[in-house]
Amino acid sequence: MQIRNNIRRLLQYRMCLIRFRELGFERVYSYSLGREAGVSPEQIRKDFSRFGIKGNKRGGYLISELLDSLNYIFGKNELQDVILIGVGNIGMALARYNCGFFKRRKYIVAGFDIDPSKIRKINEIPVLPMEVMPRFVKENGITVGIMAVPAISAQEICNMLVNAGIKGIMNFAPIVLKAPREVVIENINLCNVLESVIYCANYARDDLGVLEC
Amino acid sequence: MQIRNNIRRLLQYRMCLIRFRELGFERVYSYSLGREAGVSPEQIRKDFSRFGIKGNKRGGYLISELLDSLNYIFGKNELQDVILIGVGNIGMALARYNCGFFKRRKYIVAGFDIDPSKIRKINEIPVLPMEVMPRFVKENGITVGIMAVPAISAQEICNMLVNAGIKGIMNFAPIVLKAPREVVIENINLCNVLESVIYCANYARDDLGVLEC
DNA sequence: ATGGTTATGTTATTATTTTCACAAAAAGTG
DNA sequence: CACTTTTTGTGAAAATAATAACATAACCAT
Predict the structure, then answer these.
(1) Per-residue model confidence (pLDDT) at position B212
(2) Torsion from C-alpha of B198, B200, B203, B208, nearest 10 degrees
(3) Among A39, B79, B90, B105, which residue has the least CB neighbours within 10 Å?
């Protein structure tokens, strides 16, 4: 039972709905939302159905109600604290973006780094030495961490996080992390993503005519 | 015919193979590579098969040969120039990471921004005003761009890129870009990714027992 | 009211992806 | 040199996901 894709789409729908609301719309239809989100209307109805979200026959969906439902699903109202491990290029950018996360009620409450020169505040976020991480996680009930560390130390740090009680990791290190099944790991390899776009844009077109990519 | 997933996995395999090589290994087996890449052995053989990559019955795969094949597929040898639009938080981080891209023969050759205060060099990369982008793209035969701009201006900039002749876009703006079918677009919404990890880590576990996420 | 229209919700169908299963080739062994 | 073991490569089967189809409810106009 794999629901990660559903969830990702729901989040995308929410993003579009927020824009629709800002534009002053009150209602959406699976058709209009689908066009905005780049998804088929049937897919949207299926996704909603799966999470028990109901619309109005003939009347589409009330944006405010939809957003309420989605926010309920994703726990919008509670502020969710996360930590950041590794305050290099990417880590720094994420720390600086924190107010963007905050709008969605996600908040980087602390950064951690092995490098002592990084131990300072960045954008109001305290950056602490790696050693205090486990205690911080336990004391603050942190369940999710963002890893932006070099590949070489990534698995070790992942183990530390798991031992400290972390249940989900968003990983930017170019390595496939190994962790117990119950820990959710999302590996984001920006280099690979760029490379796949380059490949699809340049090479994958004249192979067999229509190589959807 | 959808091959984006295959490609993504191949890139992941390559990443693992590079590590294996660094560790001094000469051969891999679908089994060992699979464990490292978090993929089943059959999947690996299928992926290789699809791209005409052959191994040795009983002898597995020679890492050097595999890497040659993969580098051939992904055009490792030619240096691929890309441009960056938007030099804010994320854009800056990517520009600073350029040497990492360079190792893979991908290189951000220029950044562009509307904000005049951003017009300067970052990490050897010239940042130019937005207006000169189309000419730059045409004169340098750029086919792929990275967008790290605010959502509000994203679609407009996407259109500019497409008009200038760009064939692939890696987009960090929180919006689903619309472009002609032949233009490859990869939307990366970091906020949504984080949120999906949080959801899977915190909520999706006690629903039906085994909610694989 | 009542009939027509429209958009949902869900079932059925199709397509895609992954896993399974096994034949065939290579390498080792006695 | 036969025999066993091991690992690939691929066709068949199973599982998943996406699309199509359509019955049903709500709304609107007459």
Answers:
(1) 67
(2) 180
(3) B79
